[in-house]
Amino acid sequence: MAQIPFDIVGFDLDGTLVDSSLDLAAAVNHTLSTVGLPLHEVDEIKRFVGKGTRVMLERALKASGDYTPELLDELTPVLMAWYQEHLHDHTRLYPGAAEAMAELRGRGIRLAICTNKFERFTLPLLRALELEPHFDAIIGGDTVGKAKPHAEPLHEMVRRAGGGRCVFLGDTSNDIDGAKNAGLASVAVSFGFVDVSHELGADAILHRFEDLVTLLEGWER
Q1: How far apart are CA 81 and CA 123, in angstroms?
Q2: Within 13 A of 145's CA, how many CA atoms are on the CB side?
Q3: Which is nearest to 144 in space by CA: 167, 181, 114, 180?
Q4: pLDDT above 90 as % of the chain
Q5: Which of 10, 31, 111, 122 has a CA between 20 and 30 Å from the CA of residue 131?
């Protein structure tokens, strides 16, 4: 069995570890519908995700052609309240993720999450999916007061997970740029919310979770 040269494998959440696109899209469209604005397709809303709930809504409003800071302030609590009640109606792990995580943990690798989703959504979602016990550190978008691509939340993720060499998986420039800023190795997943994984400049690209362990075993030391 080949050795994995990392102590920690870190994951982004939305679009990397879990497919939450249907629930996020439903939250955005519910919010837009309350003020009679045009709704968006799921694939369009996927591209709005990455910098937290408020920015997701801001992007949706701009795409609807009716953005103002005042409207964003008015509708952000509407979205958050609705999403809080529908966190896991359809959200699921990506295929192969559970098995990859189990193998990594079985080989002594610590797992961690660093997401720009606020803790008030992240922690209940992980508990509902029975994932929380698998992680040595969970960092949300508001945990340290800064979000990816800033290095600080990733540094805190590594610290809370016990330190050591870490590789970070993500699907957006926030994830890969954040890993670079934090001095971490990075893997861009091609199955996430952003379909330009080859343009993100990651150290490697992952097309399916079934290949994650093999990818890490073959990592250049």
Answers
A1: 16
A2: 0
A3: 114
A4: 89
A5: 31
Is-contact 88 128, C-beta < 8 A?
A: yes
Q: Is the pLDDT of residue 220 over 90?
A: no
Q: What is the pLDDT of residues 174-196, one digit of tens each?
A: 999 999 999 999 999 999 988 77
The per-residue pLDDT for range 137-167, each reduced to its tens digit, is: 999 999 999 999 999 999 999 999 999 999 9
CATH superfamily label, 8-20+91-217: HAD superfamily/HAD-like (3.40.50.1000)
Helix (H, G, I), strand (E, B) or coil at 2: coil
Q: Is 7 annotated as a binding residue?
A: no
Q: Distance between alpha carbon 189 and the CA centroid of its chain, in Å? A: 11
The one catalytic residue among 12, 19, 175, 177: 12
Calpha distance 196→122 (Å, rounded): 25
Q: Is 23 annotated as a binding residue?
A: no
Question: What's the gap between Cα 180 and its chain centre?
Answer: 16
Domain 21-84 in CATH 1.10.150.240: yes
171 annotated as belonging to a binding site for a ligand: yes
